[in-house]
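Lab notebook, bench 4. We co-purified these components, and the gel suggests they stay together. Before we commit to crystallization screens, I want a quick structural picture of the whole thing.
Request: model the full complex, all chains together.
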Amino acid sequence: MGLHRTTPPMDVVVRPMRPDDVPVAERLFAHTLVELEGSLATLDSPAPRLRSPQRARLWVQRTLRFVEDDPAGCWVAEENHSMTGFATSFRRESTWFLASYAVASDRQGRGIGKALLEAALTHSRGCLRGMLSASVDPRAARRYKAAGFDLHPQMTLSGPLDLSQAPEISHVRGGTSGDQEWMDSLDRSARGAAHGRDHEFLRETHHLQVLDRSSGRGYVYTDEAGQVAVLAASSRRTATRLLWYTFLSCPTPETTLSHVTAANQWAVDVGMAAGLSLSTRGYLGLRGLKPPTPYLHHGALL
Ligand SMILES: CC(C)(COP(=O)(O)OP(=O)(O)OC[C@H]1O[C@@H](n2cnc3c(N)ncnc32)[C@H](O)[C@@H]1OP(=O)(O)O)[C@@H](O)C(=O)NCCC(=O)NCCS
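Here is the predicted assembly.
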């Protein structure tokens, strides 16, 4: 694993990410996203804000694990010893996942992102499949398409929850490490690879609820706001029940459901029945994979 030099710009060095780079990368990513949001804002959009310290800590915690477990997938671009971009990626079984990717706003569009993605993609050699969740940035879409990813638009449903049409949901219980084997099998059916040790991380940082019946199995992780982080099920019926369960147990009157592809119309049906508004946002990028269903992916752990 050496250094990659870009042409152009010649003064950029792309080198492996180190643990002490991670907090710097977090700030770079947070600021880059705020600037991307700002560039897309309309007059009635709320002013974009940096993410909460809690979300920033979670990002650092997750990224440190990638640097430790998948050092060949994590790269930094430097100009004059200062970080101007990074890409983090990891492999599970024979699928490669891009977790995070950004170039500082004032350095974008000069080939730094291309060099970083090429470095991260060296970690995908031998992988049959690839998966990433793309932002709305047309530069990102261009890079992913050039790297052979098909782009599937993602929908978001958000707004105040109307639970008047919610069915009664029973048999959902808290999940444990004892459920992981069948959860890994659901992951393999949906995306060709188990989450494996990422389930440990998700269990530590999210709430896990499962439905494990002879009629169907499924799991859902929700974050501190009660929003879905990952949902997988053996049938649309079970996925539908789990999604209603998360809406019924949501701690806030409003919610957001992200990362819904066209292959997951069951989730659009539930979101609309719960009164949420539909919009589109970014893409699911796939190589060697059909859009997973019934499955709602995580933005970084996919
Ligand atoms: C996505 C990102 C990492 C790419 O890095 P970058 O250094 O800008 O990328 P590059 O300069 O190597 O490539 C950008 C491509 O988009 C093109 N491009 C530049 N400006 C563009 C614009 N305004 N609209 C469309 N395409 C544009 C460039 O010509 C280039 O394509 P080419 O190589 O075929 O000529 C960076 O732009 C970024 O951080 N964006 C904001 C955060 C983000 O969206 N991250 C991705 C999360 S999935």
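The chain has two domains: 4-127, 157-296. Worth comparing against the SEC data before the next meeting. The first strand starts at residue 4 and ends at 5.
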